[in-house]
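[recover] target loaded
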């Protein structure tokens, strides 16, 4: 599958929708990650991160000594993720 196969990849409204979706599920994600225990210093991968994924919750847990990498096939989604991280 290429980014051209993703029907909504060039849509600004799709980036917005995916960020909203990530925020809606963030509390559930936080609870799930809490079950994994301390993650300070970990290296984490958010595969298929889209415009936001769980980059924020992972980054908060790994702290400044850890590393979080977001990967997505769609360059527009990655641009959205980069903008999220920069904010």
């Amino acid at each position: 599958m290429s980014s051209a196969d993703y029907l909504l990849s060039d849509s600004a409204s799709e980036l917005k929708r995916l960020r909203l979706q990530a925020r809606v599920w963030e509390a559930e994600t936080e609870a799930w990650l809490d079950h994994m225990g301390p993650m300070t210093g970990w290296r984490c991968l958010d595969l298929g991160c889209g415009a936001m994924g769980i980059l924020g919750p992972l980054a908060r847990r790994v702290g400044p000594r850890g590393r979080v990498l977001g990967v997505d096939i769609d360059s527009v989604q990655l641009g959205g993720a980069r903008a999220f991280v920069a904010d």
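[recover] notes: The chain is about 50% helix and 10% strand.
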